[in-house]
Design brief:
The chain is built from four helices and 24 strands. With 462 residues, it is mostly beta strands. Among the domains are: 2-47 and 59-195, Immunoglobulin-like (Sandwich), CATH 2.60.40.420; 330-375, no CATH class. The structure holds copper (II) ion (CU). Residues 452-462 have a biased composition (Basic residues). Its main location: periplasm.
Length: 462
């Protein structure tokens, strides 16, 4: 934790130092690269106006340098390797060593200059989704600018005019470049107290993503439109997604952006939240109502807020059940209710790795150590204090703890449930259901005395 903080402090100092030392020689800020998949602690601004930093789930914030009152960033578009879960690496395209790219945090009214260097094998551009800016800075290749050729650096410059939750992505060969993971988060903090923006104790952000990676392969299929098999948050899949660790009583904000091909209903357990902002800006308080699930449609951002007042390990996930699963083949037949007994040994003579699965549902998959292809993630995985979680993909845990120190984002471990507060097994007698006891008590030849049940019929009563 502290070493990572030092990394950022160090890299900021390095950037600033280089800026001084090489000011006459180079106008381009030194690019900062990060390859760790850990959630970096908040980057506390060392220069520029102060703000409350966000925490990017399994990501980081891009350091900048101040130059004559302008905040300068350097994004490098390049091929990267992202570890989506332990043992599962995917070839992607991203920015500054990672996919998604680093989060950019600025303050309302900041003059921002972003250098974008293209190290991809094809041209690119960057669109600043949701921003008010001069048309020629909007990043639509061919429409508002020439594409950034391979090996070249383009400069974007505008004022961050309104506070809010935004993102960036290419507007060049979009289908391929976004399917390969090119996207990043952008937060513009308010410059002063804002009537529609509350002060929070924790502020998290992440992008939703979907990839089609054939089990055993390393590169997403870019032509896929609907049949994705890897569902992630910031290009990580559960249990590779860090938990959101907060202190009981904290006001928590979570910002979510969707650049996938489908919508994702994001669901929080144990708490009610309000949508306090979209990519259109903060929502006026009179337009808000309580929810426990909010749909984040394609190309949308949602900013939710709640008071974390219930201690525990609360699930936080996409409510589409297929999106909380890891990679699976699409040709898996539904086997519920099919009795395989005796069949497995027969099949295993021909197919030694054959496994019986799915005839009692698929929950057994959570604990099966099934032989997997070389580079993939199990379909359902992650283990909790009570056993396998049977979840993958877009799932993590909101950990609310009384003794979590303010500003401490470390994982506190599993929740210690107070005695008598966990669902438990009933071990008394099982009473015979009343209707069955009535039926079994009646001799067969006395069937006329059974309760009369008349099925609804179209002949009667019409
Ligand atoms: Cu989803």
């Amino acid at each position: 934790m502290s070493s990572r903080r030092q990394f950022f402090a160090g890299s900021l100092a390095t950037v600033a130092g280089l800026a001084v030392a090489r000011a006459a020689m180079a106008a381009l800020p030194e690019p900062v690269t990060q390859t760790s998949v850990d959630t970096a602690p908040p980057l506390v601004p060392a220069t520029g106006r102060p703000y409350q930093s966000v925490v990017t789930l399994n990501g980081w914030t891009l350091p900048w340098r101040m130059r004559n009152g302008v905040k300068e960033f350097h994004l490098v578009a390049e091929p990267v390797v992202r570890e989506m879960a332990p043992g599962f690496k995917v070839n992607m395209w991203g920015y500054n060593g990672q996919s998604p790219g680093p989060t950019i945090e600025v303050v309302e009214g900041d003059r921002v200059r972003i250098f974008v260097t293209n190290k991809l094998p094809e041209h690119t551009s960057v669109h600043w989704h949701g921003q008010r800016l001069p048309n020629g800075m909007d990043g639509v290749g061919g429409l508002t600018q020439a594409q950034i050729p391979v090996g070249k650096t383009y400069v974007y410059e505008f004022e961050a005019r309104r506070p809010g939750t935004f993102m960036y992505h290419p507007h060049a060969d979009e289908m391929v470049q976004m399917a390969m993971g090119m996207m990043g988060f952008w937060v513009t903090h308010p410059k002063q107290a804002h009537p529609h923006i509350s002060t929070v104790d924790r502020d998290f952000c992440f992008l939703l993503n979907a990839f089609d990676v054939e089990p055993g392969s390393y590169t997403p299929k870019v032509n896929t439109m609907t049949d994705f098999n890897v569902w992630g948050w910031n290009s990580r899949i559960f249990p590779g997604i860090d938990s959101l660790n907060v202190r009981q009583g904290d006001r928590v904000r979570i910002r979510v952006g969707n650049l996938t091909m489908t919508n994702h209903p994001i669901h929080v357990h144990g708490h009610e939240f309000q949508v306090t902002g979209t990519d259109g800006g903060p929502t006026p308080p009179g337009t808000r109502w309580y929810e426990v699930t909010t749909d984040v449609a394609v190309g949308q951002m949602r900013q939710i807020e709640f008071l974390a007042d219930e201690p525990g390990d609360w699930a936080l996930h996409c409510h589409k059940s297929h999106h909380t699963m890891g990679a699976m083949g699409h040709a898996v037949p539904t086997m519920i209710g099919v009795d395989h007994r005796g069949l497995v040994q027969q099949i295993q003579k021909v197919v030694p790795d054959y496994m019986l699965m799915g005839e009692r549902g698929m929950a057994d998959m959570g604990e099966m150590a099934m032989p997997l292809p070389e580079n993939t993630a199990p379909m359902m995985t992650g283990t909790g204090p009570f056993g396998p979680l049977e979840m993958g993909g877009m799932f993590t845990v909101l950990k609310v703890r009384k003794d979590q120190a303010p500003g401490d984002y470390r994982d506190p471990g599993w929740f210690q449930h107070p005695a008598g507060t966990v669902a438990y097994e009933y071990v008394g007698d099982a009473p015979v259901p009343a209707i069955d006891s009535a039926r079994t008590a009646v001799p067969v030849d006395d069937a006329d005395s059974l309760p009369k049940v008349r099925k609804p019929s179209h002949r009667n009563g019409h």
